């Protein structure tokens, strides 16, 4: 099994694709990616549930359990932990770790809206690291997604440092797309910085350790499926390079 922590200290950033079911995860490992994550939007939407509302704990755990049968590290998006109680969030982390999950994303936005107080979120991070010290905790800061105008970088850095002091192994700031700010944040942190992929952003020389694809692949899969269905309806043909039935079947042990 690949060392998930070590992947964050390679010469090039870890590009982390995100799966929404077992077969998408299996296909991504088969494509040569050394590790995968899950997408909370993909998991929620696939079950007809809203994302970010704390309603997919059961589905998230079930997917994580199935994905850990695959040959590489899996990190799981657990939204805000599905609880505001540090002990309950630590219980969830311990359950995920018990069957081989390598890491988690733990966001500081809350199902009721807005951001958590930094100390409250730090308490969740601390509880998880105390219970499961070997689990990679990626503390996600949603400040760029919660406001119309990006907050000052000093505010984001303050949150990040509090989460690191609580034990976070990495910091994830989705929506941070300014190259200068990314480089400054990466340089101001003692742990790996994770950003969300953005078209046109060259992250290779910015000090970034991990680039996540988030819900992009799930959304792309839906787009491709509906586009192809419309094309066939209108007289078009399916491409020749779509995997066959047995190509998919071979992913299932």
UniProtKB/TrEMBL annotation:
Transmembrane region(s): none
Gene3D superfamilies in UniProt: Phosphoenolpyruvate-binding domains
InterPro entries per record: ICL/PEPM, Pyrv/PenolPyrv_kinase-like_dom, Pyrv_kinase-like_dom_sf
Listed PANTHER family: CARBOXYPHOSPHONOENOLPYRUVATE PHOSPHONOMUTASE-LIKE PROTEIN (AFU_ORTHOLOGUE AFUA_5G07230) (PTHR42905:SF16), PHOSPHOENOLPYRUVATE CARBOXYLASE (PTHR42905)
Name of the molecule in the record: 2-methylisocitrate lyase-like PEP mutase family enzyme
Protein source organism: Amycolatopsis magusensis
């Amino acid at each position: 099994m690949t060392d998930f922590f070590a992947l964050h200290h390679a010469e090039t950033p870890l590009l982390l694709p995100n799966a929404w079911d077992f077969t998408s995860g299996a296909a991504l490992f088969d494509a040569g990616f050394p590790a995968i994550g899950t997408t909370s939007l993909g998991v929620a939407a696939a079950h007809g549930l809203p994302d970010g509302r704390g309603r997919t704990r059961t589905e998230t755990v079930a997917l994580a359990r199935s994905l850990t049968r695959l040959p590489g590290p899996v990190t799981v998006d657990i939204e805000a932990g599905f609880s505001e109680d540090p002990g309950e969030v630590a219980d969830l982390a311990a359950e995920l770790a018990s069957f081989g999950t390598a890491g988690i994303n733990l966001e500081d936005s809350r199902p009721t809206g807005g951001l958590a107080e930094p100390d409250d979120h730090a308490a969740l991070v601390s509880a998880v690291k105390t219970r499961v010290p070997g689990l990679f905790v990626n503390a996600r800061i949603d400040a760029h997604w919660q406001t119309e105008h990006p907050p000052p970088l000093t505010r984001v850095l303050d949150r990040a440092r509090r989460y690191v002091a609580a034990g976070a192994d990495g910091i994830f700031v989705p929506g941070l797309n300014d190259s200068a700010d990314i480089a400054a944040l990466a340089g101001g942190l003692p742990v790996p910085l994770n950003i969300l992929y953005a078209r046109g952003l060259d992250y290779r020389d910015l000090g970034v350790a991990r680039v996540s694809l988030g819900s992009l692949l799930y959304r792309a899969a839906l787009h491709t499926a509906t586009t192809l269905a419309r094309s066939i309806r209108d007289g078009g043909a399916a491409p020749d390079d779509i995997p066959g039935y047995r190509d998919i079947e071979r992913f299932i042990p």
